[in-house]
Amino acid sequence: MKPSLTCREFVEFLDRYLCRELPAETSARFDAHLACCPTCSAYASTYRETVALARRAFEADDAPVSGVPEELVLAILAASRPTT
Amino acid sequence: MEDTLLVDALRRGEAPAFETLVRNHGPRLLEMTRRLLRHDDDAARAAVQDAFVLAFDAIEGFDGVELAAWLHDLARSAALLRLPRPLAEEPIDALLPAFLDDGHHVRHPHAWSAPAEAGAPVRDAVDRLPDAFRIVLLLHDGEGLGVSAVARALGLTDNLVKLRLHRARQALRGLLEAHFGREN
Ligand SMILES: [Zn+2]
Q1: Does B111 touch chain A (CB under 8 A)?
Q2: Domain B3-81, what fold?
Q3: B102: which chain A residues are within 8 Å (Cβ-Cβ)?
Q4: What is the pLDDT of residues B79-121, one digit of tens each?
């Protein structure tokens, strides 16, 4: 039986655990730590919430879109006017 | 005008098509380059201009499938080229979880949850991360690139991208805890 994980180890490799990149035996030790450590459990749930919030914050429909300033439109057209 | 018709008109060098392209696709591209360049408006505008000039030159070779995605890739690459290099990597230890010598947490994280409309405070918090972490998080979680694509875009190894992404999320978690934890 390997020694149980420390909280530091749990948090350090949390991303690999959540992405299921850890070997099965290691992942089982993470499962066990998560089940008995309320601190890491709270950390893991707020970490996942953070990842979800970041994705949502930058989804096209959520981020505000303003127009393109007219002088930029003109500058782009001037820089790339068809030569024919 | 549909994109396929627009591309045909662009290939014929019709001037109105160029203007339509800029007006249709410019706003989203500018929003994205502003995000990557942290609201440095001059650099963001220059990146969009770079992208359109490249697109007009390369329209002959464009495969005609996804015009918006193609322009988006060009503008993103142009924005990355305009980031101040090397990417700022100031320490973010203060935002990372702290541990005692025995490996236990120094303190219990606050439980918090964000309101439904959390976009603005989350984007503000991301803006506070040093560029080396902010850009990896934006490319991966905002732009939806995979780890290897982020690594190629920034000239980093996959492992360094994974590490910076994890640190960026941890730091963001700390900032959001300070923001949303206080409101609850
Ligand atoms: Zn723990």
Answers
A1: yes
A2: Rna Polymerase Sigma Factor; Chain: A (1.10.1740)
A3: 6
A4: 999 998 888 888 888 889 899 999 999 888 777 888 888 999 9
Give phi and psi for B99, each to the nearest 5.
-130, 150
Q: Would you tell me which CATH number, out of the four given (1.10.10.10, 3.90.280.10, 3.90.79.10, 3.40.190.10), belongs to the domain B93-182? A: 1.10.10.10
ipTM reported for the complex, 2 dp: 0.88
Q: Locate the domains of chain B by residue range.
A: 3-81, 93-182
Quote the pLDDT of residue A42: 93
B54 in A contact zone (CB under 8 Å): no
Strand partners, B5: none
- How far apart are the C-alpha atoms of B42 and B79, rounded to whole Å? 11
Give residue B184's pLDDT.
45
Q: Please, which residues have CB within 8 angstroms of residue B124's CB and are 6 or more apart in sequence?
A: none
Q: What is the pLDDT of residues B6-18, one digit of tens each?
A: 888 888 888 899 9
> Prior bond to B91 cis, omega within 30?
no
Please tell me the distance between residue A14's alpha carbon and the centre of ligand 1 in angstroms. Answer: 11
CB contact under 8 A, B103 and A62: no
**A54 in contact with chain B, both atoms CB, cutoff 8 A:** yes
pTM for this structure? 0.90
- Give domain A7-80's CATH number out of 1.20.58, 2.120.10, 1.10.3470, 1.10.10: 1.10.10
Distance A28 CA to ligand 1 centre (A): 14
Contact (CB<8Å) B27/A66: yes
